[in-house]
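[Solved] Which block belongs to which protein?

Original post:
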Amino acid sequence: MNRLITLRRALMTASAAIAVLALAACGAKSDGMEGMDHGGGHEEPAPSTSAAFNSADVMFAQMMIPHHRQAVEMAVLAETRAQDPEVKALAAAIKGAQDPEIATLTGWLTAWGQPLEAPTGHGSMPGILSAEDMENLAAASGTAFDRAFSELMIAHHEGAITMAEEERAKGQNPDAVALAGTIATAQTAEIEQMRAILARL
């Protein structure tokens, strides 16, 4: 009888030990899988927005967002008011380039924990058009619109280039500085194109 009790206890102890080992093995497997999952996530490149930035980068993004938005508004007007095919095509190209840049700049400010708008407002931005300028542009059509659009967008682009060059000189974030270079190069070329358009209108 004593032997039977002892045998049962031994079997119970052994079963418990096996159960513990099985659970430990499952836990180890689970941990390993989770580790693999996490490891896969860590292999992705860190977002560029985590790089260092300074006040010049922040100001560049805060000012360029509304500046770009106004250029996009002008481009949208061209869809129904422009007559010259080259003006229409250029306006579409401006909208196609600047819409994604607005999203990029907004993403950077969010990642940096900075407000999307500059506390000083936008009145001091170089090249920004007044409400009256925008109203006059919206009221024009045909060749008159083509000429007004080109003249105003040249001034607008020149302001953006000024802001971009300041970022290139003072900015710290490499991606922001690179975008500033892209903006300066692209808009310089577009200014030359619009001057050629004005010369033949």
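(Second protein starts here: sequence line, then its structure tokens.)
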Amino acid sequence: MTTAARQQTVTDKVRDAERARDELCDALKAAGVQLPSLGLDAASCAGPAPLALIDLGRCNVATARALAAALRSNVGEQQGAAR
């Protein structure tokens, strides 16, 4: 693989991770949850074979509980729809 092709692959991975981060942020916002440190893990986006990981970061207790409630609500909705 050429250097240019490798760089394109790296760029594509990072852009895909950015889109996924934005989708997650939007979904969390719709559920009334904001993770203040949500972002890309810079170290995982570097190097010749980046993983482009999304860092969910830290949150306070209230945010953790809001996220848990939103997830439980969504699971309950999905289980109800499957019946």
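Accepted answer:
You had them paired correctly. Confirming on the second one: Strands lie at 39-40, 54-55.
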